[in-house]
Amino acid sequence: MKMMINKPLVLTYLYLLIYILLSSGVILYNKWVLSPKYFNFPFPITLTMIHMGFSGVVAFFLVRVFKVVSPVKMTFEIYATCVVPISAFFASSLWFGNTAYLHISVAFIQMLKALMPVATFFMAVLCGTDKARLDVFLNMVLVSVGVVISSYGEIHFNIVGTLYQVTGIVAEALRLVLTQVLLQKKGLTLNPITSLYYIAPCSFVFLFVPWYLLEKPMMEVSQIQFNFWIFFSNALCALALNFSIFLVIGRTGAVTIRVAGVLKDWILIALSTVIFPESTITGLNIIGYAIALCGVVMYNYIKVKDVRASSQLPAESIPDRIAKDWKLEKKSSDIFNPNNSSDNNGGNINSEPQIDEEAPLIASSRLSHIGRTQVSNHGV
């Protein structure tokens, strides 16, 4: 009997695999470039500016030259009140997140990122976009306790690196909330290409000031390596990651993405200990991170349940949902159709929150992270 192959399902899991590989690869690549023990380019702001500049140029060609998508109706008022503040916090999150690589390990950075739902929840409550709820609050306490335990078990704990990473998380949480408050209020929809087109250049400008004050003087007196192919491939990987996120969003539901995010985090922690031997993890690290992840998973379950309740959709298994989404012809491929405007469903920021490349498992806008090179990532 000939076995039937569900091609849409296979394609979906292929996209998920590509996302996991690119996300992990970008984070490890950034760490390798920045680390004094390896490529030794200890200038995180410069690296982030390279990513922003490259992404902005590619987006410009896609929008203005090749006309893959059309630009949105952007007025000066919307740009000044929405794009500029969002870009400022985006640039800050990338700057602080990347700088953390100079002080702490990739594994510990991933563990600290479990705090992202906590920061996002409290910022959302403060800004009035979410309500304070006891069940969510208890989950946030569980996540925080887990991260504290994990930090206590960190052999190479560094307060400076931890503060950089936590500051980056807070900046990213503010960006996510501002995106929801400002852009949704204006009814503005951005897909990954148009978000790169508007936000990457603005973020580049914001990064220029700290770069000029902090890194330019250091670069003038130090013997730095500048290998074109290293930085080009690094920026290209970050850009490819951004688009892979969009493809994943178009093919799957929130549950699938969050499960993939959990898998990616564990794979990344394991890989980082192999590639970077100094990234030693202890039993207490793992226990604390497992506790934090329990809180994150329960939080995500609550959010997904709320979304389903509000939309009155019955619970579905992941394969069933993927198949259904495929049959409904989600707009993930519309981005490549020059006849479609930039406010297609594949990039609608007003739709259900989906994925955050550098903080998977939490609600995020569809404004992509441009590879979140904080590292990550990130830039993840």
TL;DR?
The chain is mostly helical. It is about 65% helix and about 0% strand.
Q: How would you explain this protein's 3D organization?
A:
The chain is mainly α and 380 residues long. The chain has one domain (7-310). Helices cover 67% and strands 0% of the residues. It contains twelve helices and no strands. Helix 2 (44-65) packs across helix 9 and helix 6 (134-152) runs antiparallel to helix 11. Residues 315-319 and 321-380 have low confidence and may be disordered.
Write the topology of this structure.
Elements: H1 7-34, H2 44-65, H3 76-100, H4 106-112, H5 116-127, H6 134-152, H7 159-186, H8 192-221, H9 228-251, H10 254-275, H11 283-311, H12 318-327
Helix pairs in contact: 1-9, 1-10, 2-3, 2-8, 2-9, 3-7, 3-8, 4-10, 5-7, 6-11, 10-11
Largest sheet: none
Total separate domains: 1
Secondary-structure element order, as H and E?
A: HHHHHHHHHHHH
Tell me roughly what share of residues is in helical segments. Answer: 55-70%
Give a quick set of tags describing it.
380 residues, mainly alpha, 0% strand, transmembrane, TPT_transporter, Sugar_P_trans_dom
